[in-house]
TrEMBL record:
PROSITE patterns: CDP_ALCOHOL_P_TRANSF (PS00379). Keywords: Membrane, Transferase, Transmembrane, Transmembrane helix. It comes from Vreelandella gomseomensis. The lineage of its organism: Bacteria, Pseudomonadati, Pseudomonadota, Gammaproteobacteria, Oceanospirillales. The chain crosses the membrane at residues 32-59, 80-103, 109-132, 178-195. This is CDP-alcohol phosphatidyltransferase family protein. The keyword Coiled coil does not apply. Belongs to the CDP-alcohol phosphatidyltransferase class-I family. Pfam families: CDP-OH_P_transf. InterPro entries: CDP-OH_P_trans, CDP-OH_PTrfase_TM_dom, CDP_ALCOHOL_P_TRANSF_CS. Its EC number is 2.7.8.-. GO terms for molecular function: transferase activity.
């Protein structure tokens, strides 16, 4: 929901940083290093080092934006890089939720399971539409720098980052926060399935009408 406003704000500072890295690292290397930092949040959360886990989350998200900026400024954008980026993103998101379940299974496990269930819907609807949109050559006007069609929803990247940070800042309230975010994810799944289905239907009808 907020990505169309937050992404333009981060492009310029990330591109300045990317210019400094040009020739020193590849976008895929940045992606993988950011993932390794982010995945360290799993054991940190399990051991209840919430402050360090928050640092890992923030650095991972910084790297997630930096790899795309580096790809653009260095002319090394690729579908392979976009695939690696989004694939590792979803593994990282799930790892953070799992970390909270391991930290306090008695209190957190059910809420974590609900959130993982809900996030499967957001992820699959997001990626499935991206594949169909690519095949149908549907443009993505709001997110021209993305490697795939960015299907919007109530819980996008910005909301997910905020949720992960709130989990780390207020671990005692993880259950409540996770349930609230899970409900938002379920709403996102429903709207994406509905909107994606009718977008593809209208696009096909329009293409047939002009044939």
């Amino acid at each position: 929901m907020l990505d169309r406003w937050t992404m333009p704000l981060t492009h310029r500072p990330l591109e300045r940083l990317a210019h400094r890295l040009t020739g020193r690292a590849t976008p895929d290397q940045v992606t993988f290093i950011a993932f390794l930092i982010g995945i360290s949040a799993l054991p940190l959360l399990a051991w209840e080092y919430y402050g360090l886990a928050l640092v890992a989350v923030v650095l991972n998200r910084l790297g997630d934006g930096l790899d795309g900026a580096l790809a653009r400024v260095s002319g090394r954008s690729s579908e392979a890089g976009g695939f690696l980026d989004i694939g590792l993103d979803f593994v990282f998101y799930a790892a953070v939720v799992l970390g909270f379940a391991l930290a306090n299974p008695a209190e957190n496990a059910l809420a974590a399971a609900l959130l993982l269930f809900a996030s499967i819907g957001t992820g699959t609807s997001f990626l499935a539409f991206a594949i169909a949109a690519k095949q149908q050559a549907i443009e993505r006007p709001h997110f021209p720098n993305k490697a795939f069609y960015y299907l919007e929803g109530l819980t996008e990247g910005t909301e997910t980052v905020v949720a992960l940070m709130l989990f780390c800042l207020f671990p005692a309230h993880f259950t409540t926060l996770a349930v609230v975010f899970a409900v938002a994810c379920l709403i996102t799944t429903a709207t994406r399935l509905w909107g994606g289905y009718w977008t593809l239907r209208r696009h096909k009808a329009g293409a047939q009408g002009t044939a």
